[in-house]
Specification:
Blueprint (H helix, E strand, L loop, with lengths): L5 H4 L5 H25 L2 H29 L6 H30 L5 H30 L7 H8 L1
Helix pairs in contact: 2-3, 2-5, 3-4, 4-5
Length: 157
């Protein structure tokens, strides 16, 4: 298994394995919902809803692995970035859970008003998720969290 997935073997946690799915699925849900508003097809709206639901399920794994990974982040500037990242991503996750529940309980009542609520919710979710993901990227690319610097330095030589 080590030769097939050497990156995973050397990863300090599993968060990077899960984190990209909710981001991509939620942003794609937004794009598909915009198309649904434009083409006025209920089937396109349902596709956006399914993407939202799949992203929310994936988000559950990202949240649990992220909370576990956060324990390894030292205090200081990286810790501050982690706090912002965690607050924003948990907020985004709960927005997604709420929006998913709203659509589920609305059932087959696909009205223009429902689509507007979903669109606005997805716009807010996309904004919160994008800013939160940026703080996650800051921890990795600015502060080197999750990077094995001894190996990275050796490769640089």
């Amino acid at each position: 298994m080590e030769s097939i997935l050497p990156g995973l073997r050397n990863a300090p946690n599993l968060h990077p394995l899960f984190v990209h799915f909710p981001i991509v699925l939620w942003l794609t849900a937004l794009l598909v919902e915009i198309v649904a508003m434009w083409n006025r097809k209920d089937s396109t709206h349902r596709a956006a809803v399914w993407l939202l639901w799949l992203g929310t399920v994936a988000g559950t794994f990202a949240v649990f692995t992220g909370l576990h990974a956060g324990h390894a982040v030292p205090s200081g500037p990286a810790g501050s970035a982690l706090e912002i990242h965690e607050e924003l991503m948990l907020t985004g996750y709960f927005i997604a859970v709420g929006l998913s529940a709203f659509v589920l309980f609305m059932g087959q009542q696909v009205t223009h008003g429902l689509k507007v609520v979903v669109l606005v919710g997805l716009l807010i979710l996309a904004a919160v998720t994008t800013i939160g993901a940026d703080r996650g990227a800051e921890m990795v690319y600015r502060y080197g969290i999750g990077v094995n610097w001894t190996t990275a330095v050796q490769l640089k030589k």
